[in-house]
Structure formats: structure tokens, C-alpha cells
Design goal:
This is Short-chain dehydrogenase. Belongs to the short-chain dehydrogenases/reductases (SDR) family. Keywords: Oxidoreductase. By secondary structure, this protein is an alpha/beta fold. It has one domain: Rossmann fold. About 45% of the residues lie in helices and about 15% in strands. The chain is built from 8 helices and 11 strands. The chain has a 7-stranded parallel β-sheet, with helices on both faces. Strands 5-9 form a two-stranded parallel sheet. It has a two-stranded parallel ribbon with strand order 8-10. α4 links the parallel β6 and β7. It is globular, with a radius of gyration of 19 Å. About 35% of the residues are buried.
Length: about 270
Amino acid sequence: MENIIVITGASSGIGQATAKLFAQKSWQVIATMRNTEHQSELKKYDNIKLLTLDVTNNASIVKAKERILEQYDHIDVLFNNAGFAINGLFESTTNLQVHAQFETNVFGLMSVTRIFLPVFRSQHNGLIINTSSMGGRITFPLLSLYHASKFAVEGFSESLSFELSSQNIRVKLIEPGSTITDFSGRSMEIVDGNDLYDYRDFMMRYRQSRKNYLNSPRSSAEDVAKQVFLAATDNSPKMRYVIGNDAISYIKFRTANGADESIQQIKKQFNIK
């Protein structure tokens, strides 16, 4: 019986790299995204099926699930990967932006999970892998909405794992650090807070310090995909898969020294008074 994985947000970055890797490992991949029209890369694989799925639209999720079940009699793994980040001063954000951040990263992930859970229950097995981030365990400046959404994913996933264990369904978390993808491009929305002059000193210090951070080594999307594959196949009770030296270092420091020391470390790194 072939192994089948459903991936959301597969149009680029981690989602696309994961789809390719699983296809190369002879899995049947259902790669979903909001728009499949311009997706040429994944069409090269015979064992990748492209489907339209918008995680913020329940009707779209239900339709995608129905189309999958018309062709396949089971699903082994659901990889909730769709997401984006809003970057900027919280005071400059709008309610629309706040809601959009959570609609995709949290409520969309929850909706996909809820709609696909009956499939796993009927099978009496399955695995849900959620893309979190080191930003679900530690925080950086100007990403308050993104961190809030990823902290929510962490709490949701961990608590959900208790009830789903009764159905022989597992939940795992992928926690990448800084990754070489288009995350800072089309997957990140920049909020312009230039009109808030009181933040000028803070922003100047942050921007100068951020250059050093951006020049530090980063993981590739393929590095993350390898850990997704490990999570899907290692049959272990391990829940969190931390990827990248930066993520490992930051999370290890916070675990060993506590939240207060970790916050002071970040403030020092970004020259924040």
C-alpha cells in the first residue's frame, strides 16, 4: 500500500521542497496551494498531484478533501505548512492585518486539521505535522503577530496530541530557524511604521543589528524537508523537530537559562535599551 501525504502551502519554499523529497522517496504526494496555474516545478513528478486549497476557506478545504478521497482510500500524513509573517511595529498594524495573520497561520491550520480528522479516525491511525518555528518558542523584535500565531500553533498542537492519542493519531511540530526561502519575500508582509517617530531610535538600532543576524548561516528548505520526512517515518514519540544551528542555540539557551535571560540575550543582540 502506497504512502500518501497531503501538504498545504506547497507552492514554494518548505512546502515545495517537502513535496519533492517525499515524491523522490516514492510517496504519493497531494500538494495543495491557493493557485496551481503557475506551478510548473511540481508538475514534473508523476506521483505529485496538485490541488487547489485555500486554508482560509472551509469550502475549499472540504472540496479538496473530497477530491482526494475520490482517488485514494487513505491518508498517512497531513502536513500543515501554509503560513506567512507580518513584520513591523504592532502599533502600525490594522485589525485586518491581525486577523489575516491568524486566519492563515492558526485558524486555517485548525480548519484543515478538523476537516481531515474524520479520515484519520476512520483509519484508526494517521500523523499530523504542523509547521511552527523557533519563533513558537522564542521571540524577536517586530514580529509580535507572527510569534503570537506560532505560540498558538505550539499550544494547540501539544494539547491536541493528548486527545488524538486515544484515536492512534499522532501530532508533531517542525520548528525551523532562519531558512533560505522566499519567506522574507512574498511570504512576509512588511508594515510601514515610518510615521511613528517615537520609535526612530529603536528602529535604527534594530536595523543596524539585524544586518549581522541576516548574514549568519541559514538552513535551506531542503534541510527542513529532510526533518519533515524524518518526523513522518521515524515512528518515535518525539514531538518537536528543531532545524538549524540558530534554532538549536536559541532554544537551548532559553531552556537552560529561562525566559528572562533569553529576553535579555535578544535585547543585547539587537542593541535594544
